[in-house]
Amino acid sequence: MKVLGILGTPHTGGNTVLLLDAVLKGAEAAGAEVEKVPLAGLDLNFCVACGRCYSKGGCGFDDDTELLKAKMMEADGIVLAAPNWMLSVPAQMKALMDRCSLHVHTFLFTGKYGAAVATAGGSGEEGVAEYMNEWMRICGAQTVGIAAAKAAGVGAIMDQEAQVAKAVDLGRDLVAAISEKREYPDQAAAHAEFSERMKALVMHMAEKAPFQYDYWEKMGWL
Length: 222
Ligand SMILES: Cc1cc2nc3c(=O)[nH]c(=O)nc-3n(C[C@H](O)[C@H](O)[C@H](O)COP(=O)(O)O)c2cc1C
Prior knowledge:
- By secondary structure, this protein is α/β, with parallel strands linked by helices.
- The chain has helices at residues 15-29, 52-56, 64-74, 91-98, 101-105, 125-138, 160-179, 185-204, 210-218, and strands at residues 2-7, 33-38, 77-83, 113-120, 142-150.
- The chain has one domain (2-183): Flavodoxin domain (Rossmann fold, 3-Layer(aba) Sandwich), CATH 3.40.50.360.
- Residues 9, 11, 14-17, 83-87, 119-124, 151, 154 line the site of flavin mononucleotide.
């Protein structure tokens, strides 16, 4: 079982990574093979909304985002970690999400489980973590929870010991969810509703976007 952690902050020794490492430590202790990838220094182009992924199934860019997409597809569990930057995730994390539009249109994370980690200087850490989890859910994953903490400065997570312990537990729970193929009825209901809207979109775009239409047909979702 593979658990992939993606770190969306340039501080590779900052607050968010401390909690991400704790989640991965919990996952590893529970038996997963873990990998951490910092987005810092990677070559990540912004989505240009060309629609190629919907029509042909591939992206026009051949950059590190494509490697990250492959790593996410290989993983059973994905942990997204980011600080609150201006009430949201840093642009590098958002760039990765935007480049995964096809993942949303074809629910490529189906069968995977996710968890999210966020920190903030003052507020908004839970909202940022929930946002990343919601993104994984619209890609088809189910999410197990968040680890979110405030920090008075770099290297100063408040109530650090307790926050790290909670993050370790989250990692363990992620592995448990994957092992037992846990079902979350509220998430399944939200997915069913979202799927109806996506189906209408996919049918409407059928001529312009044959790849995603064929994918839905092949999956028996139409
Ligand atoms: C560009 C930037 C924007 C930020 N915006 C916010 C914000 O809107 N709200 C907040 O509470 N903290 C904000 N912060 C503080 C970070 O969220 C906080 O220091 C975080 O713990 C840093 O995590 P890191 O060390 O993993 O990068 C911001 C920091 C930076 C550099």
